[in-house]
């Protein structure tokens, strides 16, 4: 059952879809410093002032987290006006916000249309835990890959998110959680007792981040910039299904922590569960992991392994997993499968998961069984699928009365 939080306009908002032409202004959020310099020069800022103005904008956008030009108090009125005519720094619209019984939050965010396209909806999830708050960020609307256990994989790719849209998910979450100066934490919110509300970011939401490499790279370099959001690269994890060439680029050009959506230890089964395996089989994937820059016992690669009853959860699979990861500083996350409507799998029995975990732990790998979070609001791993897609399906079913439409997603 979904649990919606209080329905005041501050925490739950519904608004009509703006027309595609509503706001064609590009966002300053997600621009590199060089791009900001060009934007400022376009607004008439003298060359000798550009660097100073870039520093000011960066501070307002990423340290103070402002969402309107008028809040930039040390920027002249003329420049604020010139900027606002050409650019926007607005946050995405919040279409829905849900809070799970366990404190997990899921936002459905709507980004304006780009070009001839339509507005798009994206889900972002916040998971508070002891001492940390992790934000699970989306990189694409839908996904081209069709991992058979994943709900997002049933939604066709609509488009890649821009660097600004990826960053905006972090900014909006920090707004809502009171993680910027002058912002309040919602009453009763479960957040870390000390430090940042959003302390960690995982690129593990909708989409395959390495199929949107340039935008993800720009966004993560801005997120980890020490003069702005200042998230340590050790607290940013990029999760991939195994796009091997871009794993090498991630290590060299971004330098964040790596997670692999593994789920099977034999090519035959992985071809079925994670079909990109047909293109980049396990041997190539494991080599890319061994070669990942900076990987060490202090900077382990995380391997995600969803527990599917009777599919990949036998003791023999556990032993094969240990063998496969030999020599790679690794952490294994065992994920009890989170069912979604129409999925073909069941979650492994708890005893089976514990037996599996024992074998892996005994071999020296830290392998926590990830407690399912946000299940009641379909916010758990592999369950993300935009609300608009669900609504469209509902409409199709209502229009046709077709059980087939209901089953195909
Ligand atoms: S697991 Fe990731 S890559 Fe695979 S279908 Fe789901 S969102 Fe796409």
Automatic annotation (TrEMBL):
Matching Pfam families, A to Z? Radical_SAM (PF04055), RlmN_N (PF21016)
Compartments where located:
Cytoplasm
Catalytic EC class = transferase
Tell me how the cofactor is bound: Binds 1 [4Fe-4S] cluster. The cluster is coordinated with 3 cysteines and an exchangeable S-adenosyl-L-methionine.
Write down the PROSITE patterns for this protein, in alphabetical order: RADICAL_SAM
Keywords (alphabetical) are: 4Fe-4S, Cytoplasm, Disulfide bond, Iron, Iron-sulfur, Metal-binding, Methyltransferase, rRNA processing, S-adenosyl-L-methionine, Transferase, tRNA processing
Q: Main site of residence?
A: cytoplasm
Task: Give Gene Ontology CC terms.
Answer: cytoplasm
Annotated EC: 2.1.1.192
Q: Could you state one GO biological process linked to this protein? A: tRNA methylation
**Which SUPFAM superfamilies does this UniProt record tie to the protein?**
Radical SAM enzymes (SSF102114)
Write down the superkingdom of origin: Bacteria
Give the catalytic activity.
adenosine(37) in tRNA + 2 reduced [2Fe-2S]-[ferredoxin] + 2 S-adenosyl-L-methionine = 2-methyladenosine(37) in tRNA + 5'-deoxyadenosine + L-methionine + 2 oxidized [2Fe-2S]-[ferredoxin] + S-adenosyl-L-homocysteine; adenosine(2503) in 23S rRNA + 2 reduced [2Fe-2S]-[ferredoxin] + 2 S-adenosyl-L-methionine = 2-methyladenosine(2503) in 23S rRNA + 5'-deoxyadenosine + L-methionine + 2 oxidized [2Fe-2S]-[ferredoxin] + S-adenosyl-L-homocysteine
- Describe the location of the Radical SAM core domain by residue ranges: 129-378
Positions bound to [4Fe-4S] cluster: 143, 147, 150
**Listed InterPro entries:** Aldolase_TIM (IPR013785), Methyltransferase_A (IPR040072), RlmN_N (IPR048641), RNA_MTrfase_RlmN (IPR027492), rRNA_lsu_MTrfase_RlmN/Cfr (IPR004383), rSAM (IPR007197), rSAM_sf (IPR058240)
Residue numbers annotated as active site? 123, 381
Which parts of the chain are coiled coil? none
Annotated stretches, region: Disordered: 1-25, 388-409
Q: Family per UniProt?
A: Belongs to the radical SAM superfamily. RlmN family.
Under the heading NCBIfam families, the entry gives:
rRNA_mod_RlmN
| UniProt name for this protein | Dual-specificity RNA methyltransferase RlmN
Q: Which source organism? A: Pararhizobium mangrovi
Taxon lineage? Bacteria, Pseudomonadati, Pseudomonadota, Alphaproteobacteria, Hyphomicrobiales
């Amino acid at each position: 059952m979904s649990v919606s939080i209080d329905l005041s306009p501050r925490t739950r908002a519904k608004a009509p879809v703006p027309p595609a032409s509503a706001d064609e202004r590009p966002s300053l959020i997600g621009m590199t410093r060089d791009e900001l310099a060009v934007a400022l020069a376009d607004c008439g800022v003298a060359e000798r002032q550009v660097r100073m103005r870039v520093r000011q904008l960066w501070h307002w956008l990423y340290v103070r987290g402002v969402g309107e030009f008028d809040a930039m108090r040390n920027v002249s009125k003329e420049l604020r006006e010139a900027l606002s005519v050409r650019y926007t720094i607005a946050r995405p619209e919040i279409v829905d916000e849900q809070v799970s019984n366990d404190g997990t939050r899921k936002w459905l965010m709507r980004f304006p249309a780009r070009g001839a396209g339509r507005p798009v909806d994206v889900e972002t999830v916040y998971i508070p835990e002891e001492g940390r708050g992790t934000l699970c960020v989306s990189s694409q609307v839908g996904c081209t890959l069709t991992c058979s256990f994943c709900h997002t994989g049933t939604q066709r790719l609509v488009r890649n998110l821009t660097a600004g849209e990826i960053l905006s998910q972090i900014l909006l979450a920090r707004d809502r959680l009171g993680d910027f100066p002058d912002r309040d934490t919602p009453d009763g919110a479960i957040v870390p007792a000390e430090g940042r509300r959003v302390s960690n970011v995982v690129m593990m939401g909708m989409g395959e981040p390495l199929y949107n490499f340039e935008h993800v790279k720009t966004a993560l370099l801005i997120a980890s910039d020490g003069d702005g959001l200042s998230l340590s690269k050790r607290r940013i994890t990029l999760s991939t299904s195994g796009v091997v060439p871009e794993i090498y680029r991630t290590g060299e050009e971004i330098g964040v922590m790596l997670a692999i959506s593994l789920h099977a230890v034999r090519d035959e089964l992985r071809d079925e569960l994670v079909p990109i395996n047909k293109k980049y089989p396990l041997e190539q994937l494991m080599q890319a992991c061994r070669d990942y820059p900076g990987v060490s016992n202090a900077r382990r690669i995380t391997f995600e392994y969803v527990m599917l009853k009777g599919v990949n959860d036998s003791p023999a699979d556990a032993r094969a997993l240990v063998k496969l990861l030999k020599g790679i500083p690794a952490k294994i996350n065992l994920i009890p499968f989170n069912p979604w409507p129409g999925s073909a799998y069941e979650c492994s029995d708890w005893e089976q998961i514990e037996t599996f975990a024992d074998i892996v732990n005994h071999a020296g790998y830290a392998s926590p069984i990830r407690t399912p979070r946000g299940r009641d609001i379909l916010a758990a791993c592999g369950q993300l699928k935009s609300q608009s897609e669900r609504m469209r399906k509902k409409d199709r079913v209502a229009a046709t009365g077709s059980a087939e439409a209901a089953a195909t997603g």
